[in-house]
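Notes from the 1:1 (GR / supervisor)

We went over the backlog. Supervisor wanted to see one worked example end to end before approving the batch request, so GR pasted a single chain during the call. The sequence is below; no edits were made to it. Supervisor asked that the structure be written out right there so they could see what the output format looks like.
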Amino acid sequence: MEARLPMDARIGDKPPASPLVEATLSLMHETLRGRLAASGQDWDAFRGSAEAFTAADAAEIERRILSTGYRFDWSAGISVAEAPEIYRPRGDGGQIDESFSHPDAPQGEPDGEGRALAGVGDNVVRHETDRRGVARFIRTNERVLDYLTNGVPPGTVAVIDDSGGTLTAPIIEQFAGVICAGGTVRSHLGILTREYNIPCLMNAKIAGIADGDTVIIEASAQAKTTEDYQQGVERVGRVWRIVPEETAA
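Structure output shown during the call:
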């Protein structure tokens, strides 16, 4: 008889997650069921053992997923450079795309206030007002060192990838806002911005924003919760690019 796990009774209670998450969970459960049956223990005794689920098990699950031809989406540029066999390539024709342009980012024409929709992201903390500032791409150690030496320009909205939580930690409290192209509200960067009370959108999909553009983060949007992720609830804050009047005309 197949060993059953406590979570088996809850399967179907929530809408399915992404295909990758569903596949990963299915393989994890498969591993745990086999290990539990072989142990001869009940769940309470088994779950505390060091052999319940190991780093080798996680590596094997990753190997099985990648063997299907699947490649992970990157959220930190260094990931593609260091492990191209695991991550999808960046840019076209093997060229590195240093912009922040997501194919699924919603975009729109300028409204009466000159605000053009340029993307969305998961709001970490709900603030009373939205945050306006100047988008500055921070993807290199050189730029961080420059800001450490000369200070972060006032009103900087840092646009970074998922490696930025570590890269920008020494200067993060000087940012007016943060837009991060990866992670979740529970990521290291999300925690840091929450502690410093800095408006932040994680897992952002943006397009049409250039370094130096004036942008607005919808920091007043409802914050995304852990339950939202678990239940597949779409809850986002918007990003607008301010279009100069002469350009809009």
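Supervisor's comment: Confidence is low (pLDDT under 50) at residues 92-98.
Batch request approved.
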